[in-house]
Task: inverse folding
């Protein structure tokens, strides 16, 4: 190679390296900055009567049963608030994000806690690659066993007093069922999404931070499945997307 | 030295028999109608095995005592009749012992496994699975609905795989995590395993029966004392085996009816 070209090549490649480095440094900042403009808000409701939630008998594990003496625990396949809001609904952008937005991973650590022989929260939502802490705060051993189809399956014991451990999920998957091999009634989900997400409490309302653009937004509920809407978010103006799931 | 060893041998054997003869470790209370048969059988076995054990140790002590100072050129005496005589004698001795225990125990065995349950025995289904027991009562119609393994959904409390939307017999079935029974009423227990081998053991009931995957087994018993007892799995079934248990509540008929009402409301 001619010397002159060699220099040129070195200059271009170092410039490219600098740009990449800059992007890496700047990227978390881009995410951390509050999304100035729009965003999507909405309320998710259930139309009809929620199916009967069965009480859970934990007598086999007295330390857990004692924690629920006053308020028996039930299954949580459909959780509705007093205002008809549907809880534990995962909202995410299924189409319309550009590569950078989809690849951005929030720095916060999500968590799933085994408490009173239940998973708190019942549905966890994380970004692919986001760190998730698994905590056992019970006076008994648990064995957390997610059963994914698009991520590697794992199965880990966590005795009482064991420190929390950290996991990440590589691939998008809505949603991974989680069970405990020791307490068969324990049941939860981990929804792994790419890009911004939200989850409802029993008011059913959500607020999704997204830059202006046109998106397909999906709401997923464990019993009723997914619903989608197409929505355009203009700069400085939050868009609204309400969903109604019909009770079977 | 040899004589000292012989004495220690016999003393240790005799001392080990003392706590057993004194009943230092008592049996748990017996709450079943058939339990005394099992206890008698255990006592017979203990006496027979204990006598055999002591006899063997004392005999060993005598031989050690007698031959410990044997000179190097002393003649070795063999058992009368040689090896064949020895084997025949042992065969007859041990055979008689085992046969005697079998004959003595046949009543206990037959009462549990050969005699059918009474026609008015209360049926309860028990399913063992990793790592919990679940129980099913047939409800007012007295009939268990069919089960579909594919419909088992533990996260939503469908442990037996019932289709309550379509099967009328299943609709009134009552599924519970603890086993309540009325006192002095014969129970017909229908057992099956969901996955691997397990065991149903209630020491106060003097019942220990394995679950065998693929087999429907049955047992019958009558509990005679009100109280709360532990049902434990005594067949190593996996990592949660140590935690696999449920509670047996023996109640008065009134309390049982109340309990059942409550469980029905919770289904």
Result:
């Amino acid at each position: 190679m001619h010397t002159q070209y060699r220099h040129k090549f070195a200059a271009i490649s170092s410039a490219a390296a600098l740009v990449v480095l800059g992007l890496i440094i700047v990227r978390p900042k881009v995410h951390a900055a509050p999304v100035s403009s729009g965003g999507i808000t909405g309320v998710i409701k259930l139309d009809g009567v929620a199916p009967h939630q069965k009480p859970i008998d934990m007598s086999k594990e007295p330390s857990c049963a004692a924690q629920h003496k006053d308020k028996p625990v039930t299954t949580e396949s459909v959780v509705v608030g007093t205002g008809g809001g549907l809880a534990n609904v995962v909202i995410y952008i299924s189409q319309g994000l550009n590569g950078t937005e989809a690849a951005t991973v929030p720095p916060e650590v999500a968590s799933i806690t085994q408490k009173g022989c239940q998973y708190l929260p019942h549905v966890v939502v994380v970004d692919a690659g986001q760190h998730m802490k698994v905590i056992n705060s019970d006076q008994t051993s648990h064995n957390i066993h997610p059963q994914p189809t698009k991520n590697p399956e794992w199965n880990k014991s966590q005795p009482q007093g064991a420190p929390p451990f950290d996991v990440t999920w590589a691939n998008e998957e809505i949603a991974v069922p989680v069970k405990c091999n020791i307490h068969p009634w324990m049941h939860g989900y981990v929804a792994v999404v790419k890009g911004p997400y939200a989850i409802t409490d029993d008011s059913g309302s959500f607020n999704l931070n997204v830059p202006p653009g046109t998106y397909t937004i999906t709401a997923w509920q464990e019993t009723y499945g997914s619903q989608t809407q197409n929505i355009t978010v203009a700069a400085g103006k939050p868009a609204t997307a309400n969903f109604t799931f019909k009770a079977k | 030295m040899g004589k000292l060893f012989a004495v220690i041998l016999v003393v240790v054997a005799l001392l080990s028999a003392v706590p057993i003869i004194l009943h230092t470790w008592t049996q748990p209370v017996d709450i079943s109608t058939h339990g005394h048969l099992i206890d008698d059988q255990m006592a017979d076995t203990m006496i027979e095995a204990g006598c055999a054990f002591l006899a063997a140790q004392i005999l060993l002590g005598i031989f050690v005592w007698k031959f410990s100072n044997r000179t190097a050129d002393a003649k070795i005496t063999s058992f009368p009749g040689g090896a064949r005589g020895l084997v025949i004698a042992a065969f007859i001795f041990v055979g008689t012992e085992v046969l005697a225990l079998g004959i003595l125990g046949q009543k206990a065995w037959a009462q549990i496994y050969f005699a059918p349950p009474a026609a008015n025995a209360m049926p309860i289904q028990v399913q063992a699975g990793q790592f919990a027991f679940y129980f099913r009562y047939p409800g007012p119609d007295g009939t268990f609905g069919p089960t579909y393994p594919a419909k088992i959904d533990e996260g939503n409390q469908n442990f037996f795989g019932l289709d309550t939307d379509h099967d009328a017999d299943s609709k009134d079935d009552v599924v519970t995590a603890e086993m309540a029974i009325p006192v002095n009423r014969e129970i017909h227990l229908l057992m099956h395993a969901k996955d691997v081998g397990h065991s149903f053991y209630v020491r106060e009931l003097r019942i220990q029966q394995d679950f065998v995957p693929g087999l429907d087994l049955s047992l019958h018993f009558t509990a005679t004392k009100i109280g709360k007892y532990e049902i434990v799995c005594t067949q190593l079934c996996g990592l949660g085996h140590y935690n696999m248990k449920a509670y047996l509540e023996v109640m008065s008929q009134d309390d049982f009816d109340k309990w059942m009402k409550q469980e029905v409301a919770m289904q």
